Amino acid sequence: MQPNHSSSEEVQWQERVARTFDYFEGVCAAAAEYSLGIVKRHLVGKRILEVGPANGHMTRSLVKDFDLTMVEPSETNCQKLRQCFPRAQVIPTLVEDFIPSERFDSILLCHLLDHVRDPERVVRMAGGWLSPGGKIIAISPNSDSLHRQAAVRMGLLPAVNAFSERDKVQGKRKIFNREEFRRLFSSAGLEIEFFGGYWLKPVSNRQIDEQWTPEMINAFFVLGENYPEIAAEMYLIARSK
Predict the structure, then answer these.
(1) What 8-state DSSP symbol labels residue 164?
(2) What does the pLDDT read at residue 68?
(3) How many CA atoms lie within 13 A of 137 on its CB side?
(4) Is the distance from CB of 18 to CB of 56 less than 8 angstroms?
(5) More confident: 42 or 16
(6) Per-residue pLDDT tens for 166-199?
(7) Spatial strand order in the sheet of 89-91
(8) First and final C-alpha spacing in the chain
């Protein structure tokens, strides 16, 4: 289901997604923790902008040590964020409508670009919000993930970039491959400092939740960093040239 391009209908659509789906369940909660470690490797400065924090699973580890601003279109999520993180600034708006009053040292676009209507525009906008020496840290699913390739082989997906039922409920609009993801940033005139991946994922989330131990899960998170081309998640660090 694709929403209308008006801002009001887009907000309503994002609100429905927020009320019906929890990304941070099962192995995805562990994946969020691992991705937080990756984010912390690359953070610079004190002023952080987190775009699309959802219910704040990543936020809770950042708010104590940084001057944190969050942009979130769902009022349901905004209420949770204000309650949990009173020290942070929560701005209830679409990222496309956000007009910052300051520049940021680190901008987090984590599992955001696969959900927005115009990811190219969002990356260009974010590049203009960086302070001198600032960085964008972006995370997104990788369409060439091992588990997506296996799903195509088994006839479960028609193509590696097709939406699973989970993707649809989660409100995804695009599953990028690595070249497409890289191009979002290079086309915006940004310098790509690092491009990696994590989570070598051979089977579905349900199978992992039912059969894998925490030690197995962590091992395959780490292995994904060794094989980024087929890792389930990719991450990119970009800065102004």
Answers:
(1) P
(2) 97
(3) 21
(4) no
(5) 42
(6) 898 888 999 999 999 999 999 999 999 999 999 9
(7) 89-91, 67-71, 47-51, 104-110, 130-141, 233-240, 190-198
(8) 37
Scanning the structure block, which residue is given the tokens 């990543």?
58
The count of C-alpha atoms lying within 13 angstroms of the C-alpha of 135, restricted to the half-sphere facing its C-beta, is 18
Q: Residue 190 and residue 237: Cα distance in Å, rounded?
A: 10
E-state strands within the chain? 47-51, 67-71, 89-91, 104-110, 130-141, 190-198, 233-240
* DSSP structural state of residue 1: -
Cβ-based neighbour number of residue 179 at 10 Å: 9
User: In this predicted structure, what is the pLDDT of residue 23?
Assistant: 66
Query: Which residue in this structure is represented by tokens 């009053």?
Result: 101
Q: pLDDT tens, 56-93?
A: 888 988 998 999 999 999 999 999 999 999 999 999 99
Cβ-contact 51, 75 below 8 angstroms: no
- Chain length of the chain: 241
Hey, what are 132's tokens? 């001198």
Phi, psi of 57 (to 5 degrees): -60, -40
Residue (of 34, 36, 26) closest to 56 by Cα position: 36
b/e sequence 182-210, b meaning 16+ C-beta within 10 Å: bebbeebebeeeebbbbbbbeebbeebee
Which residue from 206, 197, 202, 204 is spatially nearest to 225, judged by alpha carbons? 197
**Token duo for residue 49:** 């902008």
User: Model confidence over 102-113: pLDDT tens digits?
Assistant: 999 999 999 999
